[in-house]
Amino acid sequence: MSVLTGLVEALRSGAVEVVDLTSPLSEDTPIIDLPPERGQPWPFAREEISHYDAAGPTVYWNNIRLSEHTGTHFDAPVHWLSGKDSHDVSQVPPGSLVGPAAVIDLSREAAEDPDFLMRREHVERWQEIHGDLPEGGWLLYRTGWAERQADPSAFHNGRHTPGVAPECAQWLAEKTPLTGIGVETVGTDAGLAGEFPDQPYPCHWFLHGAGKYGLTQLRNLALLPPTGAVVVAGPLPIVKGSGSPSRVLALIEHPAGGRR
Fold it and tell me: How far apart are CA 257 and CA 245, in angstroms?
């Protein structure tokens, strides 16, 4: 049996489960809240083209309007100044869109402190238990923030949202074999990261400067094991795009041969 045939059989039997890490996209999807003097991303909006009516008796469809960074989305290196000479979202190698996941759960810490920052020591402690970070993989950072997405006020929390400490972001970008980082919050950086004195927005600066990627507004990370899952990210290949709304899936294996 070939590897791919085996995968198909495992999906049919439930030995491999597909978990949707994507937040539903609608007019209620929260988007990043920027200072009023900055350029603003568009929230999701739609305009009906036809709905089995005179404009199209057999077809229902819509025009949509949104930012490249609305909802669950993929950040490409050119999204940030440090990565301006790197590649856009249409140029991401397809192999980089599929990779192993390392899931670190710091939701307890984030519940106690909404401005909590993951530090290198947290990741190294995870490695002591679970092994090295996966080559070409994603570090998925669980904070419990996905549970707030139905309430935009709680989700934004006055910009008090968890993130990554600058020294940790630089280390992940420059000294680990990761492809990128995935988070549950509206962006890969902490809500107050713009005010960090030494390096504002360190995840954006260091990861994109190293040609690495970001995934944001993920959900269902609690369903994933610390290791063993495979992430499949599906951004639109927008030419000259800084990013794209994305469908992000995870494959997880059930050794007993069926779903939990």
Answer: 33
| pLDDT score of 256 | 64
Q: Report, as ranges of residue numbers, the positions in the chain whose pLDDT lies below 70.
A: 256-260
DSSP secondary structure of 107-135: HHHHHH-TT-EE-HHHHHHHHHHH-SPPT
Query: If DSSP codes are grouped into helix, strand and coil, which group holds residue 175?
Result: helix
Distance from the Cα of residue 44 to its chain's centroid: 18
* Cβ–Cβ under 8 Å, residues 194 and 200: yes
Please tell me which residue in 73, 79, 122, 208 is annotated as part of the active site: 79
Q: For position 52, what pLDDT does the model report?
A: 98
Annotated active-site residue 204? The verdict is no
211: left (phi over 0), alpha (psi -120 to 50) or beta: left
Report the SS3 class of residue 12: helix
Query: What percent of the residues of the chain are helix, what percent strand, and what percent coil, each to the nearest 5?
Result: 30, 25, 45
C-alpha torsion 219→132→177→186, nearest 10 = 20
What span, in angstroms and rounded, lies between the C-alpha atoms of 189 and 257? 38
Picking from 209, 166, 167, 212, the residue whose alpha carbon sits closest to that of residue 189 is 166
How far, in Å, CA of 12 to CA of 138, rounded?
Answer: 26
* Count of Cβ atoms closer than 10 Å to residue 39 Cβ: 6
CA distance 81 to 66: 22
Please write the tens of the pLDDT for every residue from 80-121.
999 999 999 999 999 999 999 999 999 999 999 999 999 999
Cβ neighbour number for residue 81 with a 10 Å cutoff: 12
Q: Is 94 helix (H, G, I), strand (E, B) or coil?
A: helix
